[in-house]
UniProtKB/TrEMBL annotation:
EC primary class: oxidoreductase
Stored PANTHER family: PREPHENATE DEHYDROGENASE (PTHR21363), PREPHENATE DEHYDROGENASE [NADP(+)] (PTHR21363:SF0)
Record-linked InterPro entries: 6-PGluconate_DH-like_C_sf, NAD(P)-bd_dom_sf, PDH_C, PDH_N, Preph/Arog_dehydrog, Prephen_DH
Protein name per Swiss-Prot or TrEMBL: prephenate dehydrogenase
Its EC number(s): 1.3.1.12
GO BP: any one term: tyrosine biosynthetic process
UniProt GO MF annotations: NAD+ binding; prephenate dehydrogenase (NAD+) activity; prephenate dehydrogenase (NADP+) activity
Species of the source: Terricaulis silvestris
Length: 306
């Protein structure tokens, strides 16, 4: 595999930043990896884990880097750019991994200097774990990486920058697609954001009920509920930022979800077995399609216990 970058910088060394660092090294996508995190404890841990050159100053951390990957929560992207932008080299490519695209695009296009290329992105790969210890090199293997290139950027060189970001993710094992940011946010509201909201809600509700049922909820957790608790264990800061920044699309999809849920409620109340059966049957077929599309292939240590 060809070495595709001489020097990259990763800002934010959590699950995603640490996974990119490990994967870039393991698959030869970068020669030198410079890392920065606003939290000094995370920087100390990243040094212990030997993830690359951990640098205490954000401007120095991006200096001379051809590619800068922003791996902080969506609500911290602007702050991260403000802290490092003076250090960006002319012609550098800046990309991000935020789970929401439109809000990040509008926040960062205003902030970034005109002499860099911004190529927004989002890996559809992750786990419920966070922090540098959670990162692993195979996280992106055979997963989708969505790029949402800026339609308004018609500078010569922008297209080549997008291609280079694509090549980087392919080197990490991902399949790459391009999409417009608005479409991305609607699709992700359906396949990721709403499912997480439902999981947070059902688990928090069960926790409320637990005071009534005296720990029976935990004791008798069936596997369906356990699956929800895995998703609900995801980082609260990250998910708060997702919902604050993908407000419109999530509210739209949530409205539809609530209507359909009310229809189910009515079917149960009035004993409409056919309505229930038809919906469950459709849902079951969807599972088959998802498996056939290969999006359920677990990473080697997927879902491992922390
Ligand atoms: N966790 C997941 O499964 C996935 C997360 N994402 C996206 O990736 C991004 C990072 O998520 P994770 O790695 O899971 O989070 P994480 O919580 O594991 O790591 C985030 C890191 O960013 C650091 N940070 C926060 N503000 C900062 C700032 N201003 N400057 C520098 N560092 C700062 C934190 O100290 C923390 O170490 C988020 O935007 C998230 O939406 C994308 C795909 C999957
Ligand atoms: O752990 C899971 O089930 C996930 O869904 C991981 C995930 C979380 C957030 C993203 O933006 C993309 C992937």
């Amino acid at each position: 595999m060809a070495m595709i970058y001489d020097r990259i910088a990763i800002i934010g060394i959590g699950l995603i930043g640490a996974s990119i660092a490990r994967a870039a090294r393991e698959f030869g996508a970068a020669n030198t990896i410079q890392l920065y995190d606003a939290n000094p404890d995370v920087r100390a841990r990243a040094r212990e884990l030997d993830l690359g050159e951990v640098i205490d100053d954000p401007e120095e951390a991006v200096a001379k880097a051809e590619l800068v990957v922003l791996c902080v929560p969506v609500g911290a992207m602007a702050e991260a750019v403000t802290a490092c932008k003076q250090g960006l080299k002319i012609g550098a490519i800046v990309t991000d991994v935020g789970s929401v695209k439109q809000a990040v695009v509008s926040a960062l296009t205003e902030l970034l200097p005109t002499y860099v290329y911004f190529v927004p992105g989002h890996p559809l790969a992750g786990t419920e774990h966070s922090g540098p210890d959670a990162g692993f090199a195979s996280l992106f293997h055979n997963r989708w990486q969505i790029l949402t290139p800026l339609p308004g950027d018609e500078r010569e060189g922008y297209g080549a920058a997008v291609d280079q970001v694509e090549e980087f993710w392919r080197a990490l094992g991902a399949n790459v697609d391009r999409m417009d940011p608005e479409r991305h946010d609607v699709v992700l509201a359906v396949v990721s954001h709403l499912p997480h909201l439902i999981a947070f809600n059902i688990v928090a509700m069960a926790e409320d009920l637990e005071s009534v049922t005296e720990s029976e909820v935990v004791k008798y957790s069936a596997s369906g509920f356990r699956d929800f608790t895995r998703i609900a264990a995801s980082d609260p800061t990250m998910w708060r930022d997702v919902f604050l920044n993908n407000r419109e699309a999530v509210l739209e999809v949530l409205g539809r979800f609530s209507e359909d849920l009310a229809a189910l409620q009515r079917a149960i109340r009035w004993g409409e077995g056919d309505t229930l059966y038809d919906l469950f049957d459709r849902a079951r077929r969807m599972r088959r399609e998802v498996i056939e599309a290969g999006q359920d292939t677990p990473a080697p240590n997927w879902g491992r216990e922390n």
